[in-house]
Specification:
alpha/beta, Heat Shock Protein 90, six-stranded mixed sheet, 6 strands, 66% helix
């Protein structure tokens, strides 16, 4: 729904809010209870009241359109000027437009319009010697309702800004969550599908040779598929922690099955759970890329603590000329940068190295 339509009060609400305020028009008729005005004044008063009610209706019906409030407000003021010398109860015709003028213009100009209405009351009082019965109610009601209108408008604008800010925060939160799920699913499924493809090829080769190990490989495919399902469910729930030790064991097995020599050196270490999960996911994606794209025959994983930083290195002797930052590498970089870390790729001395640095006191979450 458009913002303007959402902020617009319903017609029923506007009518419910508008009707009680018409009780103040009773002051316009007080004179008829203690005097007997001539017929022309009665007819004029009835016509003025009909025009006022029409303007009042138009103003409330267009309450959400500031420009549409101006004409009805000025007509009401004109009615007040017309009737003030005849009926002191015409002071009500100055209070109503003061409320609408508070919304018809930007705040500074609205305040000037209300001040002009007050000045008009003073001029009429002095010009026609209208007395305190006209002046005091007109002055107090016009000033009071005008200032109340400005305060009410300011409050509504603040509430609208807060609502918009909250909706924007919720929208950004949904986008971040979608990106997290997409990144985690890519990292998880990419690695697992690579293993399934590798296992399936191996099982097919063994089956062709009538090797009894074919059944073991098929069971391994089944196990990987079940683990993938568990990880997908954990990813979607948002509560997911990985063990770096278990992930390294799995990655070494994957390298061995792919025919890639494992030269890893990783000492046991105690890391915060979110750091451990982030490292495990990044190492998984890096090793998957080595298996699928690098055409390497050796791979080295090194994880160590360097002062306040944990450093992870994945190096292989495959080709590096065609490295393109796809979804996997982009996801890794986003994950690391979310935790105030850094990710770099270095090429030289016959190998390609991916370096990940994460601060141990990072407040982010994987």
């Amino acid at each position: 729904m458009p913002q303007a339509a959402r902020d617009r009060p319903s017609r029923a609400f506007a009518l419910t809010f508008a009707l009680p305020w018409l009780l103040f028009t009773a002051f316009f008729f007080v004179k008829f209870f203690y005097t007997t005005p001539p017929l022309w004044e009665i007819v004029l008063s009835a016509a003025v009241m009909l025009v006022f009610l029409l303007c009042y209706y138009l103003a409330f019906n267009n309450y959400h359109r500031p420009r549409s409030l101006r004409a009805p407000s000025f007509v009401m003021l004109g009615l007040g000027v017309l009737m003030a010398p005849i009926n002191p109860g015409a002071n009500v015709f100055f209070s109503y437009p003061a409320w609408f003028l508070g919304r018809a213009y930007p705040p500074r100009r609205a305040l000037m319009a209300i001040a002009a209405a007050l000045l008009l009351v003073v001029v009429l009082t002095l010009s026609f010697d209208l007395g305190i019965n006209f002046f005091l109610p007109a002055l107090l009601l016009t000033a009071g309702l005008g200032l109340m209108s400005l305060a009410s408008r300011r409050f509504e604008e603040t509430q609208r800004a807060l609502r918009n800010s909250r909706e924007e925060a919720e929208h950004l939160g949904r986008i971040a969550e979608r990106e997290r799920i997409a990144r985690d699913l890519h990292d998880t499924i990419g690695h697992r599908l690579s293993l399934i493809a590798l296992k399936s090829e191996l099982a097919a080769g063994l089956a062709r040779d009538a090797d009894p190990n074919a059944a073991d490989e098929i069971l391994a495919v089944n196990r990987i598929a079940r683990e993938s399902l568990t990880e997908i469910r954990a990813t979607l729930s948002g509560y997911w922690e990985l063990s770096l030790e278990a992930e390294l064991k799995s990655l070494r097995a994957s390298l061995k099955e792919a025919g890639i020599r494992d030269d890893s050196r990783v000492a046991p270490m105690d890391l915060p759970p979110h750091i451990e999960t982030a490292l495990a996911m990044c190492l998984r994606e890096a090793v998957t890329n080595t298996i699928r794209h690098a055409e390497a025959n050796s791979c080295r994983i090194d994880v160590h603590i360097d002062g306040p930083t944990v450093v992870a290195v994945v190096a292989d002797n495959g080709g590096a000329a065609d490295i393109q930052p796809g979804r996997g590498l982009t996801g890794m970089r986003q994950r690391v940068e979310q935790m105030s870390g850094s990710l770099d790729i270095e090429c030289g001395q016959g190998e390609t190295r991916l370096l990940i640095r994460l601060p141990l006191r990072s407040g982010g979450a994987a």
